[in-house]
């Protein structure tokens, strides 16, 4: 398509039309995410590149934005990837309304991420956790996948700790799970004996666990002769099975039947069994732990309680797990200090 065949439109108007077009396709939180990520592109167009017509965009200019956004925000690779991924989807939509040249979105070069980059910032946000759990409670109640997400979200425990639990460690009447360090039979805790604790459960969680045990748990023993809580037909499930289950059900297309990135669900590699983790919107078990800890802190649960429940030191909690914004923290402090 020649430039003469494009329809002039300002970046601001293109963004408004895009958000309006997606309004009934995605959740409000997803729409807010689009707005936040794209506002930096609009700012660059207005303040740096002096672009008032989307028709003028080229691959070279998009590369200039990529460099500017990385440096302006001092962004980590995983955050830059999220920004550029949102921009690619937006530019592809702009192609559909003749605002930019066809194929322009393919000229956005995505950063290459290491495993450390991929895992460093990922977090299951509250709205996403609630949406996943609402779907599982309604359509897959008491399945192994439901129990995995329910327990990981509400307890914030590590994958290894969850997989170490035996049937006898669960007390339905007292509504507790006991976490024990048993290296001699194959389930060591990350922090050894220091990781042992009794975790309180809610009645909602216990109802799901009771139903899982009665209807879906395989009555088997592991190689050490123990009775695991989480089972396959052959014994205690592998940690990789828990991880795969988390990646599977946290894909937005799984619990909403929609893709926030605008991908074709029928052809996306993230919809295949061996590709669940390739979905940019799915998360790992550790991202659920990070989200759970942040949620507890946001609900004013004291840090000492969170530290003990999740078995994480206060210094590590603050540095690696607490993902509240500065604004959230100051407003919570204001709530405590307002009447002094």
UniProtKB/TrEMBL annotation:
<dbReference type="InterPro" id="IPR010998">
    <property type="entry name" value="Integrase_recombinase_N"/>
</dbReference>
<dbReference type="InterPro" id="IPR002104">
    <property type="entry name" value="Integrase_catalytic"/>
</dbReference>
<dbReference type="InterPro" id="IPR004107">
    <property type="entry name" value="Integrase_SAM-like_N"/>
</dbReference>
<dbReference type="Pfam" id="PF02899">
    <property type="entry name" value="Phage_int_SAM_1"/>
</dbReference>
<dbReference type="InterPro" id="IPR013762">
    <property type="entry name" value="Integrase-like_cat_sf"/>
</dbReference>
<keyword id="KW-0238">DNA-binding</keyword>
<dbReference type="InterPro" id="IPR011010">
    <property type="entry name" value="DNA_brk_join_enz"/>
</dbReference>
<feature type="domain" description="Tyr recombinase">
    <location>
        <begin position="119"/>
        <end position="334"/>
    </location>
</feature>
<dbReference type="Pfam" id="PF00589">
    <property type="entry name" value="Phage_integrase"/>
</dbReference>
<keyword id="KW-0229">DNA integration</keyword>
<dbReference type="InterPro" id="IPR050090">
    <property type="entry name" value="Tyrosine_recombinase_XerCD"/>
</dbReference>
<feature type="domain" description="Core-binding (CB)">
    <location>
        <begin position="9"/>
        <end position="95"/>
    </location>
</feature>
<protein>
    <submittedName>
        <fullName>Tyrosine-type recombinase/integrase</fullName>
    </submittedName>
</protein>
<keyword id="KW-0233">DNA recombination</keyword>
<dbReference type="InterPro" id="IPR044068">
    <property type="entry name" value="CB"/>
</dbReference>
């Amino acid at each position: 398509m020649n430039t003469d065949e494009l329809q002039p439109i300002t970046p601001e108007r293109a963004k408004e039309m895009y958000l309006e077009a997606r309004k009934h396709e995605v959740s409000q939180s997803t729409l807010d995410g689009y707005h936040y990520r794209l506002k930096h592109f609009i700012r660059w167009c207005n303040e740096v590149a002096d672009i008032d017509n989307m028709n003028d965009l080229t691959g070279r200019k998009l590369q200039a934005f990529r460099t500017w956004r990385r440096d302006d925000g001092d962004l980590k690779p995983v955050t830059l990837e999220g920004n550029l991924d949102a921009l690619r989807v937006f530019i592809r939509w702009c192609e559909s309304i003749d605002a930019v040249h066809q194929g322009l979105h393919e000229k956005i070069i995505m950063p290459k991420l290491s495993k450390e980059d991929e895992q460093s910032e990922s977090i299951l946000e509250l709205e996403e956790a609630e949406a996943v759990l609402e779907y599982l409670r309604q359509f897959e109640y008491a399945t192994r996948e439901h129990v995995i997400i329910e327990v990981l979200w509400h307890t914030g425990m590590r994958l290894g700790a969850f997989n170490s639990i035996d049937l006898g460690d669960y007390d339905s009447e007292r509504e507790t799970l006991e976490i024990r360090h048993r290296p001699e039979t194959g389930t060591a805790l990350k922090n050894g004996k220091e990781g042992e604790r009794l975790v309180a459960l809610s009645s909602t969680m216990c109802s799901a666990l009771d139903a899982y045990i009665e209807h879906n748990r395989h009555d088997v023993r592991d190689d050490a002769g123990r009775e695991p809580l989480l089972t396959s037909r052959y014994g205690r499930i592998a940690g990789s099975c828990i991880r795969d289950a988390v990646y599977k059900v946290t894909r937005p297309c799984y619990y909403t039947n929609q893709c926030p990135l605008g991908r074709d669900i029928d052809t996306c590699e993230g919809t295949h069994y061996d590709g669940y983790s390739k979905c940019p919107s799915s998360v790992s078990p550790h991202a659920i732990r990070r989200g759970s800890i942040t949620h507890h802190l946001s609900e004013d649960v004291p840090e000492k309680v969170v530290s003990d429940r999740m078995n994480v030191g206060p210094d590590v909690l603050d540095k690696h797990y607490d993902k509240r914004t500065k604004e959230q923290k100051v407003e919570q402090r204001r709530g405590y200090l307002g009447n002094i």
